[in-house]
Amino acid sequence: MPRLITITLYEHGTKYIGEDNRAIQDALVKLNKEFKKDFKKLDKSEDNPDSEDDIDESKGVVEVYANKIKARHYVGFAAIDNVFVQILPKVFEPSNNDENEEDTWSSIMAFVRMLDTAYGMKVKTHDLAYLQGRKLHPSLYEVFVYLFAKSLWDEIQRGYHREYVELHSEEKFLRGKLLLSKQIRKLPHQRHTFSVEIHELIEDNLLNRILYFSVREAMRRTNWGLNKRLLGNLMLAFDGVTPIHLTREHFERVHFTRLNERFRKPFELARLLFMPASGEGRIREVSGFFVDMNKLFELYIARVLSRYAGENGYMLTTNRDSENRKELFNNKPLESSLKNQYPDYILHLNKGLVILDAKYTELVKTNKNGETKIELKPDIARQLYVYSRIWGYHRVNGHEVDSKPPSIIIVPASSTYNQGLSDKPLEFEFFDGRKLYIIAYDMEYLKKRNVSAADGDFRKSLEGIIDQHRPS
Asked: Do 324 and 198 have their domain in common?
């Protein structure tokens, strides 16, 4: 068996692999090809804006060169042949150049906590703490295999999933539904049996076949002894399930009801890891997923703001909601094409509103002398000004009224990314008096297993701005 190769990168980071590592280059080119076609994403949003015509084989998830590879803006992991590649968010990158396994573990766990919040994956905190304390080789792929196997094993211990399956059989006694059209075509020596249709409550159903297929695939790829023991127990548990070669269509045929809802989490993880590519007979050569970090941060902040709004009696709308969309022009030529932009979130208070936009961007720049300064791009400032202008504009009795709602830019911060921004909000004032603020969400807390503290600091900054602009 070829030696397992694990590659850890941070987004936009570069790693030199040498010119003789053809196996790594071939594996990453295969990853890029699969990614451009129909690589599984974490959700159904357009996380991959690159089309097959826009990029070549060397520029998908990673840019592949003769002696190095460079990560792009996608984060996640993949297993290709004997190569495991994991790309982590730059905001979690450690400060020292000599990264050790403990640093990598902290970054992986912070990333998983971020995914858990953004996508509601219901990851148990004690499972992550257990893995990090086991001193295993840090692998995001192995972490997800463990989460799949552990969640499935927990449910299997509560009982197998059984469902009624339609079966056609030949019986000596009449039971179920008699298949008359088949019965009357029987020859005389066959008429001592009845052709019947029955429904039996059995374990050998579609959902269990998918889970069994996923367990076998995970067993084939995992290298953690911990995962192998869990998966081995599951192999024995699914001994009565028919092993078949599954396609994407099998996964898409599963529907959840109150009877099988408890298996949704392991199923979703199995689909994320092992669902084959589209097309009859195709197999999944690449396991894993990648997500656009910009989208992930936007969705993460949406979950944070949603909790805050619910607890304070506010209403939150996002750029996907119709209430958050206003046209920029009253009229425009029919032949013109204009993609309207909307703020990521609008927080509707009891009186007034606040406009917020999540920007996964680095504002704190360091020059050659080690001096830092904050650089806010003019395009971002103009964008937030327009949002405030559009949503603050009203006509009352034929007169223009502008409430000048405050606009807020939310950026991530950590000990190595936008350092110093997490202390207090930055305040800007436009020429007409409307306000623009920058709030940093301190992602360093996610590495320290304290998401609530990050939320608390963020809420404190947000409440200070709301109180400042609350109508008297």
From this structure: no
